Every structure is written in C-alpha cells, then in structure tokens.
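Worked problem 6 (solution included).
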Amino acid sequence: MLRNVLLRVSAACWLLLSLFTALVNGSDPQLLKKQSSWNWPESEKVVQQINTFLQSRVPEIERSQIKFDGTDAAGLRGVGLLDYVLNATAKSETTVAALKAILDAPFAAENFAKMDAQLSSILANGSIPVWLRSDLQLSCCRYMVHHGLYDEALQRLLPLAQESTSDPATWLFCMGVCQHHLMQRTACLETLEKLLERETELPTRYAITARLMQADIKPFKEDSLDEIARMMNDVERRLALGRAGKTVRDKEQAIVDKLDKMIDKLEQQQQEQQQQQQQKSGGKSKQQQPSQGKPADDNQVAGQKGNGDVDQKDIGNGSGWGNLPPAQRQEALQNITKDMPSHFREVIEAYFKRLASNNP
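Solution. The predicted structure is:
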C-alpha cells in the first residue's frame, strides 16, 4: 500500500518537473500558457487571396504576364498585413484606390462623407470578394477611431466578424476604444481582456493603451461626477465634429439632470446631518435643565410668556446664486465640494452659472 502511494507521488513530481524544465528551456513555451480565444490569420493564405484577386482584375491576355508572388508580405501580421492588403489591391482596383486616397488625405468632415459613400459603393459591388470587403471596412473603422468618430466606427464594427479580417487585433483594439469612450464599461472590459490574451504579440501602442483603458474604466460608476465629466467631454467631442443634433441635446439635458440629482442628494445628506446634530444638542440641553421643584435662579425672570409672533419677511422664490457677492458664492461652492475631488469643482460651478442665467 505504502509502495503504491510513493510511486504515485514520484510520478506526479516527475511530471511537474518535466513541465517546468520544458518551460524554462523554451522547448514548448505554450505548454503552461493559457490558450487564446483568437488566432492570427496565415499571411500565406492572405497573399494567395490577393494574387487571385489581382489576376481576376486584368484582361485574360495579360494574366500570364502578371505574377504576384507576395514575397514582401512574408511574415507580416496584424496592422502590417492589413495595410499590405489595402496597398496591394489599390494598385489594380480603382475603387479601392479612390478609398485609399481619402484615407490618406488630411481629415475633414467632407472627407468622412466621401469615405462613407465610397465604402458603401464598394460593399455593394458584387465583384469585390468578401475577405477584401472585411479588410476595407476595418481600415475605414481604424480611420474613424483615429479621428474620434466612435459612434460611426462602432456601428461598422459590430456586424463585422473579427475572424473575417486580416488583423483581428486591430478589430479588437478599435472596438475597445469605441466602447471606452462611449462608457460601455462591461463590454469594454471584455473586449480588452480578449485583446490582451496575446499581449506579448501585439504592437506596443496597442498593449499599453489597452492596459491604460482597463485601469481607467474599471472604477467607472454611473451617476457619479466621473460619469458627468466623461459625458461633458463626449459632448465637446461631438460639437467639435459638427454634431449638434438631437443626440447632443439629449446628452446635455442628461448632464443637467444628473447634476440636479447629485445636488439634491447632497442637500438631503446635509439636512440629515443637521437633524442629527440638533437631536444630540437637544438631548444635552434636556439633561442640563433643572428638575421640577428646584427653585429658579435668582437672575431668572419668571412668569414671562409670549405668543411667538414675529414680522414676516418676503424672501422670494429664486435661488439667488447669481446675485450672491463673489466671496459668498465661492464660500458656498467650497461647502458643496468640500468632500469631493478638487477637479470636480468646475463642473458644479458651471452648473450653478447655468442655473443663474435661467433665473429671471
């Protein structure tokens, strides 16, 4: 019995030692590594697809004279392979060349409209293969993300399958950036975690930015000053892009509503604290009152009673914030934000300024 136990323990120790040795010696670095849920496409397969496409774009009599070997694409992966697809196909397809020219030009609002129209025309062209359509859509999404068009990029990325592109890392990265800026916390963390499954194989800028986005959005909470600040930045971004429609107006109203809700909560907390203090002070004063039957002090005037009537004053209905002297306004602002980070003070002050401007 004891001998069997010792044999099993020895076998287990030998197996663990073998695994450790293999990992240290580098003979099988994936042995103990968590498997990734996605893979890089084979560059040879992509080159073959490009070659077939280019051959189909020239007259039959010239096909024998054209040979696309793709040797300069050997070993390419990720962004390099995606750019290679765009550059190679643009040489023989005029519609792709026109799209590439727009992507390479300096950003302008009219250029985005041209890009969207050109991409839609290419996607509707039945002669463009499916794999090329996916890569062209991803190239345009990367362009939109780079210029802050997160809503438009996300709309294009969602129906686009990650595995259908030549660069799944760029698909994941663009998706994560859009979800981060649009405050989709849960979806963003899932996307970034999936991207970082191959962190050591990613471009350095992808890996570092993904880690920063993770750390930034993890503590994000709804109905907080952090959310309000992000919403204000999002409104500024949309306005800078010339977006001033219903979406922006709804977001501006949501910011004001959240500030109102937060201020109401702060006022309620302050009232509760004051009530607690009054109850404590009231209890102490009762304890200090003389018991019944004890003679009054010599300096106490007894027998004086009144009905408590006082002259009423008209205090008005307005908040009066905009009419306060600067010193008192600053003191009130400090009292409201005393328990909050200092960089949120501007948000509160901007709210009261807007409130004052709306008062008659």
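Discussion: Residues 337 and 360 are 26 Å apart (CA to CA).
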